[in-house]
Design brief:
CATH topology of the largest domain: OB fold (Dihydrolipoamide Acetyltransferase, E2P)
Number of helices: 2
Structural class: alpha+beta
Radius of gyration: 19 Å
Distance between the termini: 47 Å
Order of helices and strands: HEEEEHEEEEEEEE
Helix content: 10-25%
Shape: globular
């Protein structure tokens, strides 16, 4: 019983901190995961006193990683779909993805590039902090699944590495 009360106090404090972050920034949603505890705080945005409606995107399916590449049309050739199967590098946070260090700089990686473990693939900006997303292992970039300056969600596939 005392352990449950302790978790409730910790959760309430964390929720208050997350709500403060929302109030101090232009974010509409923030999510934190610690072990099996997952807390998501969101606020509704109103425009001219009418709430803005958001539709939840379906979660990517592990058996079909190409479904996560919404901007690109799905290829009709099954061989093309099989060729795109690989390891997804996912976003560790909510933010904005940038494919290069600055607008005039070249992209960190292109499809077909060989990368080394720890090499920067792209950047996710969250709360004015640039967070490099690094290659989890040596490999070849099969595809970049997000566009430059595109908002990304926690767990969203960003880059596809060869399997």
């Amino acid at each position: 019983m005392a352990d449950d009360k302790k978790h409730a106090e910790i959760d309430a404090a964390l929720v208050r901190q997350l709500a403060d972050i929302l109030n101090e920034t232009d974010l509409t949603e923030v999510e934190v995961e610690r072990g099996d505890l997952r807390i998501r705080v969101a606020r509704e945005i109103t425009v001219n006193a009418a709430p803005v409606q958001y539709a939840a995107a379906p979660a990517p399916v592990a058996a079909a990683p190409t479904a996560a590449a919404a901007p690109a049309a799905m290829p009709s050739d099954p061989a093309t779909i099989v060729a795109r199967a690989g390891e997804e590098v996912k976003s560790p946070m909510v933010g904005t993805a940038y494919l290069q260090a600055s607008p005039e700089a070249p992209a960190f990686v292109q499809p077909g590039d060989k990368v080394k473990k720890g090499q920067t693939l792209l950047i996710v900006e969250a709360m004015k902090t640039m967070n490099p997303i690094q290659a989890p292992r040596d490999g070849v970039v099969l595809d970049i699944l997000v566009g430059d300056a595109q908002p990304v969600e926690f767990g969203e596939p960003l880059v596809l590495l060869e399997a």
